[in-house]
Amino acid sequence: MHVYVEVAINLPQISDSFHYHLPPELVGAVQPGSLVIVPFGKQRVQGLVLSFIETPDVAETRPVEEVVDEKPALTPSLMSLAEWMAHETLSSLGEMINLMLPSGLSQYTDTLVHLNDEIDTTAVDFSPLEKRIINLLKKRGDLRGRQMEASLRHVEWRGILRKLARQGIVDTHSILPEPRVRAKHVRKVCLAIEPSKLEDLDISLSRVHDVHERRTNILKMLAQEPGLVEPRQIYDRIGAKNYDLTALEELDLLRFVEVQVWRDPLEDASYILAAPPDLTGDQQRVWETIQEGLESVRHDEPPGKPYLLHGVTGSGKTEIYLRAVKETLAMGKRAIVLVPEISLTPQTVNRFLSRFPDQVGVMHSQLSEGERYDTWRRARNGELSVIVGPRSALFMPMEDLGLIVVDECHHESYDQSDRPPFYRGVKTARAYARLSGAMVLLGSATPQVTQYYRAINGSWTYLELPKRILAHREAIAQHARRLGIEIPLHPGEGSTADLGLPEVSIVDMRQELRKGNRSIFSKDLQSGIKKVLDTGQQAILFLNRLGTATYVFCRDCGYVIKCPRDDKPLTYHRSRGGLVCHTCGYQRNMPKACPVCGGNQIKQLGTGTEKVEQLVNQNFPGVTTLRWDTETTRAKGAHERILKAFSDHKADILVGTQMLTKGLDLPLVTLVGVILAEVGLNLPDYLATERTFQVLTQVAGRAGRSPLGGKVILQTYEPDNYAIQAAANHDFTGFYAKEMAYRRDLGYPPFKRLVRLEYRHYDSQKAEKAAFELAEHLKAWNTQENHPVDIIGPAPCFFQRLYGRYRWQIVLRGDDPASFLRDRQLPDWMVEVDPSSLL
Predict the structure, then answer these.
(1) pLDDT beneath 70, residues of the chain
(2) What are 375-388's pLDDT values in tens digits?
C-alpha cells in the first residue's frame, strides 16, 4: 500500500500540483513542507510536499526520488502564505515557494548544451548569432543554460539554440543542478590519549630536536584546552605546521574531528547592552494599546486589525518596536522586524542586539549564500528569536511567530517590482500575520495615502506619536564639553524632552540665478555649511541622482549619448572615467567626437552625488566628506563602514541619495541640504508626488535629533508645488487631503485598484503588435462578461526600452481587476497586481 503525497513543482511556469508516492525508504522521512526531487516528464525537478493524500488523481503515480533536506523547508504558515500569494498575485505556486527558499538551496531544472563534434560546422553558412553560440561552445565546452545566459546577456539566443538543436548541430538535455549551499564543516584537533598520560610518554616525536620540542608543545597545549582546537590556533601559538599534526595523528596521539560551524554575519558585532528608557506620555498611550493587542496573541486568539504607528521622525517609534518584541519573546513567541533598506540594517540590528543579545539574526542580499543559508537553518531550528532585514526576511521559517514589525512601511522597496513574481511586501506581511496568529505593527512618519486612509477609516488601528523626543543626551554632552559649548535646555526630563521638529526653509533657485549665483549651492546653504564646519557639527547633502553629470550631449547638433540597450541618457562618472547606464550596467568611454555630426563640442550637464561631493571639496577647503550611494556601497560591509565613520565624526559632510533618508539617527547632524527637491516629482506616475513628499519629509528628519537643534534647506525651481510646501511645513494631513482629492477625481487607489500588464520584446513592432492584440482580447472579454473594469492603453512604457527589449503596457482599473484575469492564460506577459509604479 503506497503513501501518496501532493507536490508543488518548483518551476515558474507550472501552476498545478501533482501526485506522487513515497518509496518505502522515504516513508517517515517526508512531511508536508519537505523539499524533494521528483520526476516530471523527462526532467528531474525540485518540488515541495504540500500534504499527504488518500487517493491520487492518476492510476499510476511516479515515486519521489530524494529528500533534499531532512527537515521541512517551509512551516505550515509559510505554505499557507505561498498559496495566498499565488492566488492574490496571479502567479504560480512554484514561484512563491521558490521565493521563500534560501538562495543556493532551491534549484530550477536547467538545460545542458553540447556541441556535436561529428558535424563540420565550417561547411555551413551560419548567422552571426549562430556563429557566436558555436564558438562559445567550442571554446568552453558543454554549458548549462544559465552559463549561456551569462555569456549572451541581452541577446535572444534561445530560439537560435532550438534551431541548432533541430539541425543536429547541438544536443540538449535537462539536468537538475545540485544545491549550491551546504552546511559548513571545519577540521579541528583534540588529544587521542588521556592528558595524564603525557607525563609518562617516552617516545621520540622526531629525530630533530627542535621538531620534537615543537610537537611536545602541541600536545601540552591540547592537554590544557577543554575542547576542540582549530589548527590555525596551534599554528599561530606554537609555530607548528600541518605536517606536525599529521605526524602526531599517525602516532595516535591526536585526532582530527570534522565539526559543523555556523556562518554567522553577527559573530563579530559589537554592541553595548542597553536598558529601556522612560516613555513619554504619547509613547505610553501607544504602548498600552499595543499591549492589549499582544494579549490576544498570548492567548492564541485572532490578533485583530493591523496597527499603524504614525510618528514624526525622531518620535521614538523604535522604542515601541523594542518593547513589543520583548513582550513577544516573554510569551515564548518570536518576531520578525523588517526595514526597507540594507543600509538601515546595521543600525537596527545593533539596537536589537543591545536589548536581545545572542537572539538576533540578520538576513539580506549582501550576505554570502552560506551566511544566508545558515541564518535560515538557525531560524528553522528555533535558535534565533528575532530576525531583522529587508523584505526577504519575511520568509524566514519562524515557528511560533508572534509579531511582525514593518518599519518605514511606506517604502517602495518592500514591493518586488523589478522581476517576477511581483508582490507587495506590506500586504504580504499582513496576510502572514493573519495566517500565523501574529500581530503586525506598521510604522512610518509618512505612511502611504492608502495606508493612512485605511487607518483613519477604522480598517486598521491608528496610533500617533506627534512629538519628537530627546535622545543621545550623554553623547551630545561629551561632544559639547570637547568643543566648549553649552547644551541648550529643553522642557521635559531625560529622554522625554520635546525637541520639536527642525526648521525648514525653501530656497527658490530661480531667484538665486537672477542674483547671479550659478552654483548648485544657494547662499543660504553655503552659509549653513560654513556654520556647521565652524561649530564642529555635521551636515547631510541629499540629491537623488548618481554620478558627476547626469547626461552628456553634443553642443553642435544636440545628440544625447544614450545606452544602446535602454535608450536612457548615460551618466558620466569621474571616478570611473567614463559613462555608465544605471539600469543595465552598460559602460563606455567618453566620446572624443559626436557619433552623429563628428563635432568635438561634447558637453556634460546635470549634477549627481559624485559632482556634489566634488564641489563641496572645492568650495570648502579642508572639509572631510563621505558619499553614500549605490556606487560606494557595492562591497560587502560598505554600509556599516560608511555609517560608522560618519557616526564617529570621521567626516563633516555626508553626501548621498535616498539611502540616507531612512531611519538614521545621527545626533551631530544639524543641517540637511536638499540640492534639488523636485527630482522625480514630474514623472508620469500617480505616485510621483507622494514619493517626493515622503523623501523630503524623511530626509528633513535627519536634522535636529539632539539638543543641538537643526535646520533644513530645500532648494527647488518649483517652490509652490504642494508636495514641497507640505514637506517644508511638516503638514502630512494637508498633503493627504490634497492628494486624496486628486486620486478621487482620477480613480486611483485607494478608490480603485490597478493591475499592470507588461509585454517585452527585442523587436519594437512585435511588442506593439502583441500589446494591441491583447487589448482587443481584453475588450472582447469585458464586453462578453460585462466586468466592471476600465482598460487603459495599450501604450509604450515611460522607459520604453530596458535591457534591449521594448516595453508596452496595459493598465486595468476597477474594484477587483485581478478577478477579471484569473484563470486566463497570458503567455509572455508580466502581470503585476497593485503595481507600485506605472513607469
Answers:
(1) 123, 342-345, 471-498, 546-549, 551, 661-665
(2) 999 999 999 999 99
| Cis before 595? omega within 30 | no
| C-alpha cell read off for 486 | 553649552
Determine the pLDDT at residue 342. 66
Percent of the chain with pLDDT over 70: 95
Number of continuous H segments (helices) and E segments (strands) in the chain: 24, 35
Q: Say which residue the cell 478577478 belongs to.
A: 819
User: Hey, what amino acid is at 167?
Assistant: Q
359: DSSP letter: -
Kindly give, in sequence order, each residue whose CB lies less than 8 Å from that of residue 491, ignoring residues fewer than 6 positions away: 497, 498
484569473: which residue's cell?
822
| Cell 563628428, located at residue | 598
pLDDT of residue 308: 98
- 732-736 contacts, C-beta under 8 A, 24 or more apart: 732/310, 732/446, 732/452, 732/697, 735/693, 736/449, 736/452
Give me 204's grid cell: 621520540
- How far does CA 467 lie from the centroid of its chain? 30
Using DSSP, state whether 621 is helix, strand or coil.
Answer: coil
User: In degrees, to the nearest 5, what angle opens at C-alpha 248 toward C-alphas 243 and 254?
Assistant: 120
- The contacts of residue 219 (CB under 8 Å, 6+ apart) are 191, 198, 201, 248, 253, 254
Which residues have a Cβ under 8 Å from the Cβ of 474 and sit 6 or more positions away?
Answer: none
Task: Tell me what pLDDT residue 188 has.
Answer: 93
Please tell me the distance from the alpha carbon of residue 831 to that of residue 828, in angstroms, as a whole number.
10
In this structure, the strands spanning 110-115 and 143-144 are antiparallel
Closest CA to 627 of 741, 714, 540, 745: 540
* Other residues' Cβ atoms within 10 Å of the Cβ of residue 483: 10
Please write the tens of the pLDDT for every residue from 651-678. 999 998 887 765 566 778 899 999 999 9
Distance CA 50, CA 60 (A): 19
Please give the model's pTM, rounded to 2 decimal places: 0.86
Distance separating alpha carbons of residues 243 and 406, to the nearest angstrom:
54
The secondary structure of 175-228 as a DSSP string is: E-PPPS---EEEEEEEESS-GGGGTT----S-SSHHHHHHHHHHHHHHHH-SS-
Q: Compute φ and ψ for 255, nearest 5 degrees.
A: -140, 150
